[in-house]
Fold this protein.
Amino acid sequence: MKLGQITAVVLIGALALTTACAQGNLPAPVVAAVADLAQRVGVAQDTITVASIEEVTWPDASLGNPQPGRMYAQVQTPGYRAFLVAQGQRYEYHTDTGMNVTLLGAPPEDGGQAGLNQQHQETLQRIALILQARRDLVGRLGVETEKVYLASLEKRTWPTSALGIEAPGQVYADVLTPGYRLIFEAGGKLYDYHTDLSAQFKPALLAGAGGGQAIERTPVIDWAVADLAARLNVAADGIAATNVQDVEWTDGSLGLPEPGMMYTKAIVSGQRITLQAQGRSFAYHAAGAPPARYAGIVYRDDAQVSVLAMGRTESADGNNFFHLVRIDPQTGQRQTVVEFVSSFATTPDGRDLLIKRRTSRSGHLVAHVAADGTVTELAKAFDFHGMALRADGSMAAYWSRPSINERTPFLNIRLQPWDASMPITPDLSGLPAGFTAGDLVWTDSGLAFSAGTDAGPRAFHWTPGDGLSELGAFEVMGWVPRTRALLVKRQEGNRAVLASFIPGMGETTTLTSVPYLQSVAAPVDQNWIVATVTGGAQPELQTITWGGIAEAVDVLEGTDYARVGVSPVGRIAVAEYMLGDVGRVDVFHLMGDQTTTQTLTDATGAMPVAN
């Protein structure tokens, strides 16, 4: 932040920021460190000297100053190292790029956080960013300042220093960058700006036009915004339309076909609408008027893909043997995301996580890890399993066993997984005691799962509006993204039949019939799935089209069971299994007719995610 901009902050907040600021271009977090030190040692801020400032990228959220007994998000955190001098003593402060500061050598109970002025500093920082972006928009539109209003302000953590707006040919730092998303209103139109926590702001590109270009609101856009607000349980003014494209759909599916369904074969004129909310982009397909069809999260076809997996480590307490790591499938390079976990679940874009940790010989905890690294402990119990997150990260579910003596699992559903309030627990009293809980599978509309009983599997479906309903006597295996279709398995004699099933409609098509079906996964916008099947001792990885055409990808030697995962756009598939006592992940790069393979050892629970 430049000196002139700091001065602007001072004038806005009517706060004398001290002569320490006059020593150089002080970033806001260093100003917060000055305020913190002044409070600690009981001196005026203008008596503190800023000896030096250095930009640093800390390896995790502890800012290079971890405290005993505390957990920190394992994400690279940009910030500063500042040396301050007060009363002849030298103090070392570490910060992020926001308002979090930590003093090396401070008593543990202080937590190393900024003092009473932190909230005031954050307010000044927001005001400065708002005024800068507002001035930019006024200049672009050529209107009076008083005619531009702030409609919405939302904290954001951008995935890179691009602030969610990448320009062709530019290179950006691959670090999480906290900031804000500002929505301004002028002349009945909305304008979208992205910022970091210093002086950088960018007008978002709307409808493919230049920065600050607004999209005309129409009834179908308003309908889509209202629908997304209800799905995410957020206010409609926190959602912006970022792109509207005229499209001629080839049939009545509006570009969203479902397996086994028939559609009117006629050209349909309409729009593809892109909305942005909570750091993600969402698509709606319309035929020119409300209602529109929800098309889910938008994943870039050219996005890089990484693999999240658990890598074995030597645990200090002997209970959690793995670190959750992000692996580059091209180079094998690993980066620790969260330390000491025993299981995890993730959204397809890797932004939200559920983790399980063992806390004692007879106890575990489950926690939510947000995109910005915030960890929220949700529950403690004897054990948890089957953890799952909806694709947009807004809902979570898991099975729990409260105690070692309780054999019947409980289903827990959280409508906001970052909130530690009480979960929803659907009534499963109709199932026999001791039933076996199956995998939890989220769709865009609800949660599906199966339960094993002595009479065979039974499948169920839960939605926030309708509650729990039974689907039939089969096992839920997965879901076809951007559709209503579940992937289910039923037995026909000595063979396993994989079929698509739409709740409320029933089975729509048979995909394959094999001796044994182990695992399935489906990408978006592809009329095929990947599966591990076996007719003997060794599983085979296959791609299977909606028309039932199966093609072998590879035979997984040395094991009798493998679990498959696929990246959101279907470029990469993984098969993870045990080879002896070593976790192994085979990564398959699916590129048209060519398939390349590589192996990651000492890894388990792997899932490819969009970066």
Observations:
- The longest helix spans residues 118-141.
- Residues 3-116 form one domain.
